[in-house]
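I'm stuck. Protein, please.
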Amino acid sequence: MIYPDIELEKKLWNSGKRVVVGLDEVGRGPLAGPVVAGALVISGEECVVEGVRDSKKMSLKQRERSYDLIVEKSTAYGIGVVSSDEIDRIGIKYAVLAAMREAVSQVESKLGSTVDYIIADGGIYPLRDHDMDILNKGDMYHYSIAGASVLAKVTRDRMMASYATIYPMYGFERNVGYGTKEHIEAIQKFGICEIHRKTFEPIKSMLRD
């Protein structure tokens, strides 16, 4: 089992980059719900929460338990949320960028200063206005990114569980908006709801037919 460390963060701090942000996003692929980005700043070993790793490798209980500790121990954190309507309006690429910018902006607001460097998980779109390194499997090896992934994942999962109480027919508490067989069948039976992404397939084609 691989747990992330803060060796990269230490290297960056030692090079003069004191405010290093770990950045990750969740919710790029679902058919419903928002895309969410998490940003996390730590300042040393005392900020590290034991057991935190890539959020996809953690159980629901582990993520929930870690979330509050990450927030409590962090130097600063931010969470950016972009709605399904906005995703349809500007496209998923720009929605992800908007969520990341919002998360980083919250960090800068809390710190009262600009960030020096961003480390992000692989596959993320670069923020052109920041010095940034996009790292393959970054959430597996680097704590700041792993912690950011937990913040984003828990936030989005909580939102989808809340939506499940409003739209119980889609099983959002189980599929969190992804296109599972159950979810597709529910769309075919009940149609779409307000948080479905109308520009995503197969919804786009279903609406056109």
